[in-house]
Amino acid sequence: MKKYLIFFLILLILFLPFNNIYADNIEEMKLKEQEIIYELFNLEAEKIKAQRNLEDITDLINSLETDIHKKVDEINNIDINIFKERQIINTWFRFLYMEGTNTLLSILLMSDNSSQLLHRIIYIDIITNYFYNKLDNLNALIYDKKTEEKMLIDQKAVLINRKNEQVNIIKKIDNLSKEKSLILEDIKNKISDYNRIYEISGVIDKTMPSIDLLLNNLSNFPWSSLEPDELKFSFFSVYASFSDKTITKMIQNYNKDFKKVEVYFNQKGFQIKNDNNYTLEGDFVIKNENLYLNITSIYIGEIKIEKEQLKGMLSGYDMKIDIKSPIETFKLKSVETQKGFVKFVLGK
Length: 348
Known about the structure:
alpha+beta; 2 domains; six-stranded antiparallel beta sheet; 6 helices; about 60% helix; rod-shaped
C-alpha cells in the first residue's frame, strides 16, 4: 500500500538536520580529506624541522652564554692585574718622590760622572715606561676583551630573535594543524553522514513495506476473539486485562509475515516491535466509546519519526481496535497500561 509513503520517508530523511553537507558528492569529500591529510603531514614535518632548529639555536645560545661568562671572568682578572700594577706604580713613585722631587734629584746628583747620571736617568725612564706600557697593554687587552664580550652579546641577541621566530613558527604550525584537524574531522563526519544516508535508504527500502503491512492490518487483527487473561465483574463495571504475550501471540498467528512482531506494555502505553527493523510507540485513545491506537512515534533504526511528519505518514490508515465487550450493555470507559498488561474498564 501507498508507494508514495516510501518516497515521503526518503525525502524526510534527506532533509534531516544531520545532512548538512556542502560538497556535491562523497568522492569530492574523500579527495578533500586526502588533501587535508597530506597538508597535516607537511605541517608535522615543518614542525619537526622548526623544533630541531630551535634546539640547535638553544644550544648555540647556551654555548655563547658560557663564552660570555668566560670573557667576563677574563675581564675581571685583567681588572685585578691592572689594580695590582697600579699599586706597584704607586709604590715606585712613592719611593722616587718619597721626599718630594729632592729624592729623585738626589739620586741623579749622586752620580759620580755624567755617564753614570745618564744611565740613572735612562733606568728611571725605562722603569717608568715599563709600568706605563704595562698599564697601556692591560687597558688595551681589557678593551679587546670587552669588544669580544659585546660581539658575543650581540650574537646572543641575534640568536634569541631567531629562537623567538622558531617558537612563533611552531605556534603557527600548531594552530594551523588544529584548524586542519577540525576541517578533517568535519569532512569525516560528512562522509559518515553520506554513508549513513545510504544505509538508512537501504533500511527504508526494506522496512517500509513491513511497516505498511502492519499499519494496514492493525484494525483487521482478530481483536474480538481475544480471551482476557483476567476478567473481574462488579455491579457497575467490568475489568478485562490482556497481557502483551497474549496479544503478541494473536498477531503472530494471524499471518506468517508477522512472526517477528512483538507487543510490549508499560506505564506510558505500548510498543510494537518487528525484530530490529522498526518500533512503533503510542497509547490508547477512546473516541465515541470506540478504542483507537494512538501512535506517537516510529523508529526506523536510529531515525525517529514523530509529530507533523508522523501525521502525514499515518494518514489513511484505520487505527480502530474492536475489543468485544463481555456484556453487551457495558461500554468501554477507560484504558490503563502497566508493565506487561493492558486493562480495559467497561461500564454502563
